Amino acid sequence: MILGVGTDLCSVSRMERACRSEHFVRKIFLPEEIEYARSKGNASEHFAASFAAKEALAKASGLGLFGIGLSGSMVRRTERGPVMIYDGALKEKLDSLGVSRCWLSLTHEGGFALAFVVMES
Prior knowledge:
This protein is of the alpha+beta class and 121 residues long.
């Protein structure tokens, strides 16, 4: 059963400006996300996609960004596609909502990154 759906669109140029601040990068993204983005040709596209994923997760859960915490989740890129990883506190919140699985789709094109999240029980 679907418990929640969330989507978010993030401007790559806005993320490029924000990521000029190393403080911002370290506050929002976990080391694995930073390493992945910086290993790619256009790091800002990948930072924007990860940021959009966190926003989409917040919307799908109904908890909002304050409720999930920007550093409470991260995007891990796998051979089968991107997946959301949560810290213990966020996992407990999602478990209490009955979330058993979270589906994530990411794309970037034309200066924007989009994330789509579906939460399932």
